[in-house]
Amino acid sequence: MKTLTVKVSDALFAEIAGDAAARNVPKSEIARERLSRKPAPKGHGKGSLWSRMEDLVIRTEDVPHDLSSNKEHLKNYGKNGADR
Fold it and tell me: H-type helices in 4-66, by residue range?
């Protein structure tokens, strides 16, 4: 693996360092992830709403087909993690 040295703003460094500390990984791993991201489409500022929230959306194939009608899916609904 090759080495690249770059200068970043204090704010960007703090953001990368915070992400690295939160995930318990080196800052270089966070930097590599960010550098390998696809650039946002031109003319859309920071990307479309979909591209910015795509990782938050649940795919329909991951949701049970009887989610609204089968009461088994509601078992333990509303309880915190320690009570489950």
Answer: 10-23, 27-36, 49-53
Tens-digit pLDDT profile for residues 15-24: 999 999 999 9
Which positions ≥6 away from 16 have C-beta within 8 Å? Answer: 8, 27, 30, 31, 34
* Cα→Cα distances 42→21, 39, 54, 71, Å: 32, 9, 18, 46
- Among residues 12, 34, 30, 32, which one has the least CA distance to residue 22? 30
- The reply to whether the predicted model has a pTM over 0.70 is no
**Residues in the chain, pLDDT under 70:** 39-46, 81-84
Residue 38 DSSP one-character state: P
CB 38 within 8 A of CB 51: no
